[in-house]
Amino acid sequence: MLGETRWRKQTLLFSATLEGDAIQDFAERLLEDPVEVSANPSTRERKKIHQWYYRADDLEHKTALLVHLLKQPEATRSIVFVRKRERVHELANWAARSGHQQLLSRR
After folding, report:
1. Rounded distance, CA 63 to CA 56, Å?
2. How far apart are CA 84 and CA 87, in angstroms?
3. Which domain range does residue 88 map to?
């Protein structure tokens, strides 16, 4: 990443999830005269977010669980995280093949 950005006049680094000494050291190596801007989300907004963690036995179980959760009436807006970009494509292809494409949207 460093090699690709050195020729540019301005380099910006945004991170919503990385924090601590490692990202600070990385930013100092990458950026010249870095400026840190931090935003704290409002407590009111954070209270609207609900998070759950589920364990699945295998890919079939995981996919069935995902469909079940996304079909719940209270699941009006959801974010699904996957580990790899390939998994996003697999999930989208599966949804299209199985008639569940309305559950997955890129909006």
Report:
1. 9
2. 5
3. 49-103
pLDDT of residue 38: 75
Number of domains in the chain: 2
Please indicate, yes or no, if residue 33 is contained in any of the structural domains: yes
DSSP H helices in the chain:
2-5, 21-30, 43-46, 59-70, 85-98
In our burial notation (b when 16+ CB lie closer than 10 A, e otherwise), range 15-52 reads eeeeeeeeeeeebeeeeeeeeeeeeeeeeeeeeeeeee
- Judgement on whether residues 96 and 56 belong to the same structural domain of the protein: yes
Q: Helix crossing, 85-98 with 59-70: angle to 10°?
A: 70
Quick one: pLDDT at residue 61?
A: 93
Per the domain annotation, does 44 fall within a domain? no
